[in-house]
Amino acid sequence: MLPVKLGEVIEIAADVLKIGRNVAFAEAEFRRKSDGKLAAKGRHTVAILPKQPNQEGEKIEIKNLQDLGAIC
After folding, report:
1. 58 φ, ψ to 5°?
2. pLDDT tens digits, residue range 4-32?
3. Using CA atoms, how far apart are residues 61 and 68, in angstroms rounded to an integer?
4. Residue 14 in contact with residue 28, Cβ under 8 Å?
5. Contacts by 36-45 with C-beta closer than 8 Å and gap 24+?
6. CA distances from 36 to 30, 39, 56, 61, 62 (A)
7. By CB distance 3.0 to 4.6 Å, which of 8, 9, 28, 42 could disulfide with 33?
8. What whole-number distance in Å separates Cα of residue 30 and Cα of residue 16?
9. Are 13 and 29 in contact (CB under 8 A)?
10. Max Cα separation, the chain?
11. What is 6-69 written as a DSSP string?
12. C-beta separation of 25 from 17 below 8 A
């Protein structure tokens, strides 16, 4: 993996590898736009939670990380 200078443009490609009933997996590659060489690579694992009640007792469905703000 290579360094990226401050202000240098990078391209990010991300893929969802698998979405199961309880867990989802994704990975991303960060490449320098100038030469396409790999600067960083990462993986992300997310637990998929069942519907959670909000403060009023209503159940809400968590579809993405922004939905977590509704219960945090």
Report:
1. -80, 140
2. 999 999 999 999 999 988 899 999 999 99
3. 10
4. yes
5. 36/11, 37/2, 38/1, 38/2, 39/1, 39/2, 39/3, 39/4, 39/10, 40/1, 40/4, 41/1
6. 9, 9, 50, 39, 36
7. 9
8. 15
9. yes
10. 53
11. TT--EEEEEEEEEE-SSEEEEEEEEEETTT--EEEEEEEEEE-PPPEE-TTS-EE---SGGGGG
12. yes
- The per-residue pLDDT for 5 is 94
pTM of the model: 0.62
- The closest alpha carbon to 8, from 42, 31, 27, 29, belongs to 31
Q: Fill in the amino acid letter for 23.
A: V
